[in-house]
User: Which sequence fits this backbone?
């Protein structure tokens, strides 16, 4: 359902001012008085029009600014957009993504059909050409994503047909092409994750997520396992089955394997919480804003989106994606507070709250990961509201890790793609809060330190290098930014892909 891949991406050697596109995009730092490079070439072709606007103060080059000029026949293009890059000091790939996003959104607003752009940051910005090209295309594609919602529209929405990256230096064209291809693969994975979160919960059921996994497996020749209730029972997945007991929709335990038979390669396992709708179960949530709980499968969506990218890029790793998917519903059969559940590693769990269900399905997902003898396991889950209280809405995911180099790699990857993570403590002291009189542990440690007690709960199901990402507050956005619209963000896909690409 995503609307992100309709825009054709072209890489071309030449002079941007000679492009036949109807809209050109160039850029400007905020300290420039006389533009140079490609922007200078366009300025010259327009008889100094850009310089005049700078001199008058109408064009400042500040971040977020987009100036519009109309050539009136001086060049073939109907309009020229000048995007502000902001300050030169500290300009980075996130600045490229935002500049590209601001430019393409303005082009879309002006109903452009064919757009040509320079690669932001690759010239005077001094950034690596391939990385800058990837960021330019990534920012552009992610910015024009539109969820194909099931509603009537008076007329078809406008679409940009093509985006051409124009580069004067022929020696840079191959690198730009490589960066562009990577960006297209990543944007498609992000769009898939966004779509799954944006879909209504009566559409994005566990079966729908399983069908999505089938498509990914077929497209990229990945091994696929989809476990049902009986399959999970054979493996003693008491946590997963307990949550699924009250679900009307059949649960699906999804396992995708890239290079599944290549045990000579490093194995990384990704585990995503797949609660396709969370009512809280018997410990039912307040009705206000419960509709946002369609996003409680944001971790599973990120894992599926990442596996799509991993397959498209054919990464030289053995990557396993695990997504335990079910609804959490109140029902005569639903699990209850005070129940004691046995997970697949034999750990017994006293249920304090059926609304602490994400950690229950993750427990069996993390135990299942042991089968692959992984070098590292990363789970993603919209797990606790306390993480949002601690770090803020849309700011960062909480990161817990049993291994420092794994933690550092994730922090570095998150910084690079601006899907930030922030390390939080995984002290054994937190285990005191989940001690039980009737079982090995409780599934909730109470209100205080909830983000950490949930992490220490999950640790009881790991025996490998492990990182837990609490992505509550990140999977669904109430307001958009430069290249993320309202709704599903696809958070985690770009982070994980960056992490995997730099694993070695």
Assistant:
């Amino acid at each position: 359902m995503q609307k992100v891949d309709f825009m054709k991406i072209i890489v071309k050697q030449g002079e941007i001012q000679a492009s036949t596109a109807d809209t050109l995009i160039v850029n400007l730092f905020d300290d420039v008085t006389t533009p140079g490079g490609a922007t200078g070439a366009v300025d010259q072709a327009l008889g100094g029009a850009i310089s005049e606007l700078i001199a008058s103060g109408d064009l400042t080059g500040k971040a977020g600014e987009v100036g519009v000029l109309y050539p009136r026949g001086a060049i073939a293009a109907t309009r020229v957009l000048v995007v502000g890059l902001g300050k030169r000091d500290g300009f980075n790939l996130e600045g490229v993504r935002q500049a590209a996003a601001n430019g393409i959104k303005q082009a879309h607003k002006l109903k452009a059909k064919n757009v040509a752009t320079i690669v932001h940051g690759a010239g005077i910005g001094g950034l690596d050409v391939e990385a800058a090209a990837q960021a330019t295309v990534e920012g552009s594609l992610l910015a024009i994503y539109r969820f194909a919602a099931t509603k009537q529209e008076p007329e078809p929405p406008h679409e940009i047909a093509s985006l051409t990256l124009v580069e004067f230096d022929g020696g840079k064209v191959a690198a730009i092409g490589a960066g562009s291809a990577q960006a297209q693969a990543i944007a498609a994975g992000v769009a898939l994750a966004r779509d799954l979160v944006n879909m209504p919960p009566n559409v994005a059921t566990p079966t729908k997520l399983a069908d999505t996994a089938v498509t990914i497996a077929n497209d990229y020749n990945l091994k696929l396992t989809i476990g049902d209730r009986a399959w999970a029972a054979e493996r003693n997945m008491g946590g997963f089955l307990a949550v699924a007991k009250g679900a009307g929709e059949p649960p699906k335990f999804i396992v995708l394997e890239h290079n599944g038979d290549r045990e000579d390669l490093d194995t990384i396992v990704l585990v995503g919480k797949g609660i396709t709708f969370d009512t809280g179960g018997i410990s039912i949530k307040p009705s206000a804003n419960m509709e946002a709980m369609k996003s409680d499968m944001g971790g599973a969506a990120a894992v599926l989106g990442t596996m799509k990218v991993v397959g498209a890029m054919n990464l030289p790793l053995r990557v396993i994606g695990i997504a335990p998917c079910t609804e959490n519903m109140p029902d005569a059969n639903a699990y209850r507070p005070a129940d004691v559940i046995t997970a697949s590693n034999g750990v017994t769990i006293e249920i304090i709250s059926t609304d602490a269900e994400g950690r229950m399905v993750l427990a069996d997902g993390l135990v299942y990961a042991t089968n692959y003898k992984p070098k590292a396991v990363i789970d993603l889950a919209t797990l606790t509201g306390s993480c949002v209280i601690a770090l803020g809405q849309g700011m960062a995911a909480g990161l817990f890790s049993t291994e420092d180099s794994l933690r550092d790699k994730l922090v570095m990857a998150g910084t690079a793609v601006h899907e930030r993570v922030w390390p939080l403590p995984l002290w054994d002291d937190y285990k005191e809060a989940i001690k039980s009189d009737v079982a090995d542990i409780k599934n909730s440690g109470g209100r205080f330190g909830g983000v950490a007690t949930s992490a220490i709960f999950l640790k009881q199901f790991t025996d490998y290098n492990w990182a837990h990402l609490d992505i509550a507050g990140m999977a669904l956005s109430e307001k958009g930014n430069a290249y993320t619209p309202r709704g599903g963000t696809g958070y985690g896909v770009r982070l994980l892909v960056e992490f995997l690409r730099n694993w070695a």
